Every structure is written in structure tokens, then in C-alpha cells.
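Extended Data, panel c. Modelled sequence:
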Amino acid sequence: MRNTIALATLATTALLTGCSGDETSEDTRTAGEVAASAYAESPEAADDVDLTADLTVGQPWADAVTSAIQTDPNRVEVDTTIVDPRGENGSPEAQQAIAICQGTVAWLQEQGAVEPHVRVMEADGTTFAVYSQTAVGDLVPAQECSEY
């Protein structure tokens, strides 16, 4: 009997809770919109700056850049439509990624960045080219845009 009363009370509480409140305040956003809103309001995102328009204006590689986000004064991550054919180093795609990297480093330096760090990403989200103040093992020499 106690279990029946407890279940009935629980069901009534859930029903009343679900029915209470103003129907006009219902959040009709999609899950993606909620996530994007939460990200935009997060403290980490507050410092991110979209440089896409500034960085690509007049550049021959502008069409390949989908976004360029500055995460701090010295650091930019550039997303592209480039797909690496996984061939030898120096492919046309790699040359384009390196040109984007070099252009981004030059832009950062013009803005006063002392220690630029740039990552150029392939369409699938993997790193294609990198510029760093320090060498990354044998893969990336210091202060040079190179394939990664």
C-alpha cells in the first residue's frame, strides 16, 4: 500500500511540475542553438575573435578559408576546405596551406604579435600546416610554416 501511495504521489508531483509555468516561456531552440548559445556565453569563448574577413581580404587563398579564430593575441586557428591528398610533401594543397599559414603569421605580426602560433586545419579538422616559435619534434621547425 505504501508503495502505491508513494508512486501515486510521485506521478502527481511530476504531472503538476510539468504543467506549471507559463507556456510562452518554453524554450523552442534546437539542441545545436542551445549549445552554440552556451558556448558563446562561456568565459573561454568571450576572448575568441573571428578574423576571417580581416585575414582573407584580398588574399588569393581566401576562398579556401572557412574561418579564422584568434584565441589569444598570438594564436590563430584557420579552418579550410583543403583536403590533403596524402601524397608527398609539397603538393599543391600543401603549398596552399603553407601560403595561408604564412599570410596568417604576417597578419599577426602586423598586429603586434610577438610570438605568433598558427594552425591551418584541413576540411576534416586535422592539422595541415603549423607555425610555432619552438620546434615540434622533427616535424615542425621553429619559426617556419610547414606541413604537419
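The chain has five helices and six strands. This feature is highlighted in the accompanying rendering.
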